[in-house]
Specification:
The protein is α/β, with parallel strands linked by helices. The chain is built from 14 helices and 24 strands. An 8-stranded antiparallel beta sheet has the order 1-2-8-7-6-5-4-3. The chain binds NADPH dihydro-nicotinamide-adenine-dinucleotide phosphate (NDP). NADPH dihydro-nicotinamide-adenine-dinucleotide phosphate binds next to helix 7, helix 8, helix 9 and helix 12.
């Protein structure tokens, strides 16, 4: 929480005062302030920050910052008053005529302190000063306010790393988000039946303002091997459609959510659904902005998709070496991992995406396997004659029409939100199921009533399950990270790690129903083309 005010004194100087409460002892904050060199990593707007002289109680530091479009340079002399946890500074040389002030850390409540900053500055160009001073004040204030918030996060990161070394971190956290407006509204109604229904635009606007937050604890999962891990459910308040409007805003929410997990000393965080897509693709590496390990969970998800498809093909007597398999989202992280496996097994592998160049790169990466590989961006056409379809595209809303599939096809929908607009009973001649799902060794129980899209309490998304498996194994690491890096070895490794603790492929599930043998019997009569000889 920060407080601020600014004013100008009789000599025309701009004066700014900021105060930021932090949940740390003052010696931690003061020690951080003294090590100026690492300030450069705090904000992209800090271009330079280095010691010119570094004596015990006095430094000379060179600064260069981007004041939101204006480059500002100065060299400042600092004087350290350790007994009062204060650092005074003044510019000896630089763009501003006057730039001076003081940082001070004040003890507040037990275990928390206030970082305070007083700054006084003067442009030194009177004719310009009165034209730009208001804007200059705003920008300097914004710079230091952001810096203080980042100082808090960096100290939190240091504390997390120390706790990790001391063995004090444990468990896991999952980042959840709602699939669409209807899902979000349903959640509000479940939590409070009195909730009124405003316009979609108004509600999404308010939702956009909401920060990421801890929603509830997740009760312990018990492994037959005697292990037990607990977790946290952290909500990122966005729906995938918001990414198309403001990707940076959504990225900030994912970052905030990871920081909540870090503050809770969790061992590993799973970025579920679109949080991983934003977290990986925004252009900044979230792993450099937090100390807590983060995983997309895509390795385990892909391992479960592959096993599910192989099992379905086996049950329906589909001969893979004669089959055509289509992957929607074939250039994506999960899609390309599945492609690695099936390029060695099927006759024809067809990859669909938007960007042909990315699809071609995936094809090149797959090399010469058994399959003849083709790529394309036409959905309906791509499904022609496909015996098996894996739908793993990051559609922001459900897009694929089930009428495009050939009779008797096996269709695995991995997407969240779902890729396929399927209602129970729509096409009796298809085997459609939700892919990438895991069967847990015990119930997945949240501390609140939330609809996360799965109605069975022992079935969970592969991405979340990956974090639980990692926590069970005590492997606090960013296990899955970076598009296209999943290997078959890692898929096998994480699957085996899960098996040790009773995690396995979930039964075939569609909407709210687990498929029965009767469902397989029903589809069997249509799977003539690729039947095992
Ligand atoms: P990526 O961002 O890595 O890949 C997305 C793929 O979808 C890319 O190939 C992309 O192609 C393609 N795509 C996106 N939009 C379209 C479109 N309009 N038409 C055709 N292709 C499109 O995503 P992930 O692999 O990480 O995730 C894929 C899906 O899986 C998501 O829905 C995600 O929420 C879900 N998921 C499910 C899990 C589960 O447990 N079931 C776990 C984790 C994720 P291009 O590059 O050309 O745009």
């Amino acid at each position: 929480m920060s407080k601020e005010h600014f004013s100008s004194n009789p000599n025309g100087n701009i004066q700014i005062f900021l105060s930021h409460e932090m949940p740390f002892k003052r010696r931690h904050i003061f020690a951080f302030l003294l090590d100026v060199a690492h300030f450069k990593n705090l904000l992209p707007t800090i271009r330079q920050c280095r010691f010119v002289e570094n004596a015990d109680n006095a430094h000379l530091v060179e600064w260069e910052i981007d004041l939101y479009g204006i480059p500002l340079k100065w060299i400042e002399r600092t004087e350290i008053d350790r007994s009062n946890f204060a650092i005074a500074f003044h510019s000896e040389k630089g763009d501003l005529k006057t730039f001076e002030g003081e940082w001070q850390v004040i003890e507040s409540a037990e275990g928390s302190s206030k970082l305070q900053l007083k700054v006084e500055l003067n442009l030194g160009i009177p004719l310009l000063s009165h034209l730009v001073r208001a804007e200059l004040e705003q920008r300097v204030q914004k710079h230091f306010k952001t810096l203080m918030a980042e100082i808090e996060q960096a100290i939190q990161g240091d504390i997390y790393r120390r706790n990790l070394k001391k063995g004090l971190v444990k468990g896991y956290a999952v980042l959840g988000h709602h699939a669409n407006y209807e899902h979000l509204m349903g959640y509000f109604k479940t939590m409070d039946a009195e909730t009124q229904v405003p316009s979609k635009e108004f509600l999404l606007g308010l939702f956009d303002l909401s920060p990421s937050h801890l929603s509830c604890d997740i009760k312990p999962i018990h492994s037959p091997a005697g292990k037990e891990v607990s977790g946290y459910w952290i909500t990122c308040p966005f729906i995938p459609a918001m990414m198309e409007v403001d990707l940076e805003r959504v990225f900030v929410k994912v970052l905030e959510a990871c920081r909540v997990a870090q503050k809770m000393n969790t061992g590993v965080v799973a970025l579920g659904g679109f949080t991983s897509i934003v977290g990986e693709q925004y252009g900044k590496d979230i792993r450099e902005l937090v100390s807590v390990p983060v995983t997309t969970g895509n390795t385990y998800t892909a391992a479960l998709v592959v096993r599910g498809v192989l099992k379905a093909a086996e049950k329906l007597n589909v001969k893979l070496d004669q089959a055509k398999l289509t992957i929607v989202g074939g250039s994506g992280d999960i899609g390309s991992a599945c492609a690695k496996v099936f390029s060695k097994k099927v006759r024809h592998l067809h990859l669909i995406g938007r960007n042909i160049e990315r699809l071609e790169k995936t094809k090149e990466m797959l090399g010469d396997g058994y399959a003849h590989i083709t790529v394309g961006n036409d959905l309906a056409e791509g499904f022609t004659n496909s015996d098996i379809v894996i739908a793993a595209a990051s559609f922001t809303s459900t897009t694929i029409d089930p009428k495009w599939f050939k009779s008797g096809a096996i269709v695995c929908d991995v997407g969240y939100p779902k890729n396929i607009a399927y209602r129970l009973g729509d096409r009796q001649d298809l085997l459609i199921f939700a892919g990438g799902l895991c069967w847990l060794p015990s119930k997945f129980e949240l501390g609140l009533k939330a609809d996360y899209g799965l109605k069975h309490d022992q079935i969970l998304y592969g991405c979340f399950s990956e974090a639980i498996v990692l926590a069970m194994a005590g492997r606090y690491e960013s296990y899955s990270w970076g598009r296209g890096k999943i290997t078959e070895e890692k898929m096998d490794e994480i699957y085996a790690m899960g098996e040790k603790h009773g995690f396995k492929l979930a039964p075939f599930l569609i909407t709210e129903r687990i498929l029965s043998e009767a469902d397989f019997d029903r589809v069997r009569q249509f799977t003539k083309v690729c039947e095992k000889s």
